[in-house]
From TrEMBL:
EC number annotated for this UniProt entry: 5.3.1.30
Designated name of the protein: 5-deoxy-glucuronate isomerase
Keywords for this protein: Isomerase
Lineage: superkingdom: Bacteria
Length: 294
């Protein structure tokens, strides 16, 4: 099933649990955790993971290392710090708030690490009503992992993101094969996924806080924020390639949209949250060259 309503995969202590096995694919997974001061202990097994505060803060203990995550009030209030957890580890999380744990099956064991909010590259993409903010906290060029890729996207009310529609399902120099998870907050909004010749998939789902859409293949987009409601989504991606990449192929029918952004001003509502001290905000709307999805 591609559309997963909030709460439908809850499995204590997890408010959301999607594994590669339950998704019916090989690599990408996602968990969500709600804490009110208690401690949760678990093993990462064969998955590398991140701990990403959606709201609130926590302490993460792993491999004899303690990382204190300052977190944030909500996904719409700022960029968050995060923690990286390697495969084959025992983890303890103590905190107060809601936390996402993007994951990917991996084979290379990297050290426990802290990702500072101030080092997260914040990017403005698109133009006009396709303007959106992308927090590239675990993009391939921003943070080292074995297989895991994760970014956050904030779309102002009434705007479209993940647009033009694109796919990552055919191996080649210009397209990476990736499984992809969309996890939503805010809304209501709408998410579209549709197939390419010989590979059918057809999803048009109304999405809100805690809902998930799985993209095993096919074109995905647009993500539409309904008027009056800002939309957030966390993208989790992973695939078989030895080198992480977010390379994609636009739907040829809509690829012209990118060149149509030339000379169109960016929506002044983005970035929607401040870029904390660090690399600042990069605009990627003014050229017709493809971006990295979202």
């Amino acid at each position: 099933m591609s559309y997963i309503p909030a709460g439908s995969t809850a499995e204590a202590p997890w408010a959301l649990r999607i594994s590669p096995d339950t998704a019916g694919w090989t690599y990408a997974g996602l968990r969500a955790l709600t804490l009110s001061g208690e401690t949760v202990e678990f093993g990462t097994g064969e998955e590398e993971m991140l701990v990403l505060p959606l709201s609130g803060s926590c302490a993460v203990e792993c491999d004899g290392v303690r990382l204190d995550l300052r977190g944030r009030e909500s996904v719409f209030s700022g960029v968050s710090d995060f923690a990286y957890l390697p495969i084959g580890s025992t983890v303890r999380i103590t905190g107060d708030g809601r936390f996402a744990l993007p994951s990917a099956r991996a084979t290379r064991r990297l050290p426990v690490r802290y990702g500072a909010a101030g080092e997260v590259p914040v990017e403005v993409r698109g133009a006009g009503q396709a303007s959106r903010q992308v927090n590239n906290f675990c993009a391939p060029d921003a943070f080292e992992c074995d297989k895991l890729i994760a970014v956050e996207v904030l779309t102002p009310e009434g705007n479209w993101s993940s647009y033009p529609p694109h796919k990552h399902d055919t191996p080649g120099e210009d397209e990476a094969v990736l499984e992809e998870i969309y996890y939503f907050e805010g809304g209501p909004g709408y998410q579209r996924v549709y197939g390419s010749p010989g590979r059918p998939i057809d999803v048009l789902a109304e999405v809100g806080c805690g809902d998930v859409v799985l993209v095993p293949h096919g074109y995905h987009g647009p993500s539409m924020a309904a008027p009056g409601y800002d939309l957030y989504y966390l993208n989790v991606l992973a695939g078989p390639a030895a080198k992480r990449s977010m390379a994609f192929c636009d739907d040829p029918r809509h690829a012209w949209i990118r060149s149509g952004w030339e000379g169109v001003p960016v929506d002044p509502r983005v970035p929607m949250t401040s870029a904390l001290p660090g690399p600042g905000v990069r605009e990627a709307h003014s050229t017709g060259e493809p971006e990295e999805t979202a």
